[in-house]
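Journal club prep, notes for RB
We'll compare a predicted complex against what the paper describes. Inputs for the S-adenosylmethionine case:
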Amino acid sequence: MTPGARISAAIEILDRILAGQPAEQALLRWSRASRFAGSGDRAAVRDLVFDALRRRNSHAAFGGALTGRGLMIGGLVAAGRDPAALFTGQGHAPEPLAEGEGTGAASGVSDIPAWVQPLWDASLGDLSNDVATAMQERAPVWLRVNPVKATPDDAMGALAEDGIAAEPDPRLPTALRVTENERRLSQGRAYRDGLVELQDLSPQLACAALPVGPGMRVLDYCAGGGGKTLAVAGRAEGLTLVAHDADPARMRDLPGRAERAGVKVRLDTDPAGSFDLVIADVPCSGSGTWRRTPDAKWRLTQASLEQLLALQAAILRRAAGHVRPGGCLAYMTCSVLAPENDAQAEAFLQDNPDFRQVSRHLWTPLDASDGFFLSLMERR
Ligand SMILES: C[S@@+](CC[C@H](N)C(=O)[O-])C[C@H]1O[C@@H](n2cnc3c(N)ncnc32)[C@H](O)[C@@H]1O
């Protein structure tokens, strides 16, 4: 596909997304209908669509319209390129620019949804603008080295065999940032043999901060695909790891992932007894990961946020019931919004005086990768 044809494809997909179709669905539908597109074309079109969603408001302002075409024109203007060079109407390129298209300005335009902006500002304070700016960029890819199978050097060596370059984070040597050829990862030996797992830096830092010791009983109460379960699995010998999720189907990949990682995890739809550590990685707005899933940023509504807040509080209460006296409850979200983070922890502590907060941390793209929150609470 020519660069112009890729832009035409992105316009068509963005128009579907703006009409309400989820981004992944719109991309899949285009992919299925476009057998002529090679893997390079698909990746390029996907990047165009996601870049446009990350900066939807500012690109629409530059382009002059909140349409697929306006977003693509605005994206080129924002990048300092002349849209007329690609909007030629030749071959499969989009029609030439009409009078006034691409002449807009975007100063003062925010790419945070207007209704979220006050919450965003109140939650992030002085960091608000910088975090919003960071969210306009593509997210880097991070790997977690599985200590059961490899040292960071072994993992980097195996990645290098497949031409994938990665470097460790100075704070956590088992966290590797991929610097070259990330698209080869899923086919590479390091991933296939369980030496590394895909996991962003901030949840890795959060899991590394959990009190995990030999022989402990750990319950991952909202285990989903098991990212947190597997992150604690290699931290100590003799752990009993129990994974629970209200929707057991969400855990379907976990047994395979655990086997690849060389660790034992028991799936339990109704866990009984008490645990030394209970992880509650609750459903959330995902506002900390909006540069990875920019579609979610525009789909979140006040009503859906309120539903999430109620669910988070309920899960926190239920998960707490599984913590033994002297044990810990780790409340986690991948959000940067205070109502989902400190406000939940504070309300819980208020109602449950047998718990006290031992530590809390909010990571943002300014010091880690995705935004992520951890409140660690101990049961007296
Ligand atoms: C943020 S995701 C978990 C991600 C997972 N911990 C990981 O690292 O891959 C939240 C999970 O909570 C689950 N969930 C929703 N309501 C729940 C409830 N009432 N009790 C337990 N889990 C719940 C969802 O099904 C979802 O899998």
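Talking point for the session: The chain has a mean pLDDT of 96.
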